[in-house]
Design brief:
Blueprint (H helix, E strand, L loop, with lengths): L5 H6 L7 H20 L3 E4 L4 E5 L14 E3 L6 H8 L2 E5 L2 H18 L7 E10 L3 H5 L4 H5 L1 H6 L4 E3 L1 H14 L3 E5 L6 H11 L2
Parallel strand pairs: 3-4, 4-5, 5-6, 5-7
Antiparallel strand pairs: 1-2
Helix pairs in contact: 3-4
Length: about 200
């Protein structure tokens, strides 16, 4: 992705350009990455990045290269980059937002002659599981409720009893999500993780 957390940039001594420039840099970066993964001596000449005979050995074992996942839901640039270069994407939001993002991605794929179904579609969400919906909601950290973006995701997130979570998983699948990347706010509570694993992984 293009990055969004200024502190991470500054912590490593990188400048933090505006969104438009970060996206332009991303557009070049994915091309450099693919060149490094596929060419014996990579060559790329861009405004931000230039490589001239760069060697990346050994190559990954996957063919034609390691799958490239591009994260972000920007409709004009990021999802277009997914259609052009990505093997996978990662978007976030509630189910309706995700459905919309995938519709935009479908349009970008059609514009560049790409098979939409060839892109592995992932989304991020979080999970609070309990024996009942009420017990699960009680586990939601108050910090998440203060964030407008996170609060909007509550109706889609995996919060509730196993039966409620199964229904919400069905909604993600119907929206086109093939894989969920799940965060657990109570990740240090192993009983919650074991409960989830028994219900959904075992």
């Amino acid at each position: 992705g293009a990055g969004w957390f200024e502190h991470e940039y500054r912590a490593y001594g990188y400048e933090y350009p505006d969104t438009s420039e970060r996206l332009r840099r991303l557009g070049e970066a994915v091309q450099v990455i693919l060149a490094m993964w596929t060419q014996e001596e990579a060559v790329f000449e861009g405004k931000y990045y230039q490589v001239r005979g760069a060697i990346n050995q050994p190559k990954g074992v996957q063919k034609p290269h390691i799958p490239l996942l591009i994260g972000g839901g920007g409709e004009k640039v990021t999802l277009k980059l997914v259609a052009q270069y990505g093997d996978a994407c990662n978007v976030s939001g509630d189910v309706e937002t995700i459905k919309h993002k995938f519709a935009v991605l479908t349009e970008h794929c059609a514009a560049v002659g790409r098979d939409y179904e060839s892109i592995h579609r992932t989304a991020g969400t979080f999970c609070c599981i309990g024996e009942t919906d009420e017990m699960a909601r009680a586990k939601i950290p108050t910090g998440l409720l203060r964030s407008p973006a996170m609060a909007a995701m509550l109706n889609s997130a995996l919060i509730g009893s196993p039966d409620t979570i199964r229904k919400r998983l069905t909604n993600f699948e119907a929206a086109g999500v093939q894989e969920l990347i799940i965060g657990f706010p109570d990740v240090l509570e192993l009983d919650s993780l074991r409960f989830f694993a028994r219900e959904f992984i075992a």
